[in-house]
Amino acid sequence: MKKPVIYADHASTTALSPRALEAMQPFLTDDYTNPSTLYQFSRASRKAVASARERIADCIGASPEEVHFTSCGTEADNWALKGIAFQHFSQRKRIITSAIEHHAILRSCDFLRRVGCEILYLPVDSRGIVSPDALESAMKKESALLVSVMMANNEIGTIEPVSQLADVAHRYGALFHTDAVQAVGHIPVNVRELGMDMLSASAHKFNGPKGVGFLYVRKGIAIEPLLHGGGQETGLRAGTENVAGIVGMAAALSEHMETLDRDRQRLEFLRALLLSRLNDSGIRFLVNGSEERIPGSLSLSFYQAEGEMLLHRLDLMGIAIATGSACNSKETVLSHVIQAIGVPESYARGTIRMTLGMDNNEEQVTEIANALIQVLSE
Length: 378
Ligand code: PLP
Fold this sequence. Notes:
The protein has helices at 18-28, 43-60, 73-88, 103-114, 132-141, 162-171, 191-194, 243-258, 260-281, 307-316, 336-340, 345-348, 362-377; strands spanning 6-7, 67-70, 94-98, 118-122, 146-148, 175-179, 198-202, 213-217, 285-288, 297-302, 319-320, 322-323, 325-327, 332-334, 351-355. With 378 residues, it is of the alpha/beta class.
């Protein structure tokens, strides 16, 4: 498949950074040893995993022993929920989450419900924000074992007030987890300052390799092991480490942290440019999400349009975007996020998501806007 000329789907995945690739290279070839072995030959891979753990911990304000490597964000989310539920099942069985979580959380909740947990889904407002007051009311009725609310939404980019939500959870004796897969590497994240108990992240969302992520678990929190086997990850997640992936993830995250502020300004400039071109065209659309959002994230709902049709038409023009709905043979199925924020029916089916990255430029965003205007004017 030909590479799209313009890639505007960075929330889906990102290209591996050259710096990360360079850091990974030795561990794919010469330093291929298993870090758990004791001979000198494995010193390099053992040291590399330890130093990656330190670098990642440093980037999120954690201690190295609180960072546990996983195979992806989905795994980290599954582990956070199931690991806490299975560990503390006998005391409390209630988990509170939001209506707009990623399926890694929602499907884990479905599973936990089947094995006896009670799940409560908090609604969101039209910007996609979970209200700390709504959490407080739910907690007053019956406290929970765990509250899990994402740091930033993958479809509309809205940043959630996780610090305030965690405060409420803690006041009622619950733990707080956040799915920060869209946030880490894109906005400042400090687990101590935010009061997080657990946090999930994934390398391929910040120009790291695919197939690696991590779960931060605050020291002192008891969590059931995810994979049983060897003693890796202090016995909590067995399996020989993905050394190259872990090294690449640390390199990519450190690189993002160095340029966080500059990147935010650039991405917001590109987003504003795209939006102003569309505004000038007179086409009718709504902008979804909150002012507090992931830089460069733009979810739009076009009046009387079909998101999937827009996606395919832009695809033919060499532009890769995402949609907030999917057509099956009979009807358009809206994403749970677009439903939850209550986009009016005449706009909802015409929802698309564009997530810009540092490899986009002014000409590209103008081209995206022109392509949309052309298709929508037909
Ligand atoms: N959580 C959120 C908010 C996401 O956006 C994604 C991926 O899109 C995931 C979890 C899953 O991450 P991964 O692809 O690493 O499994």
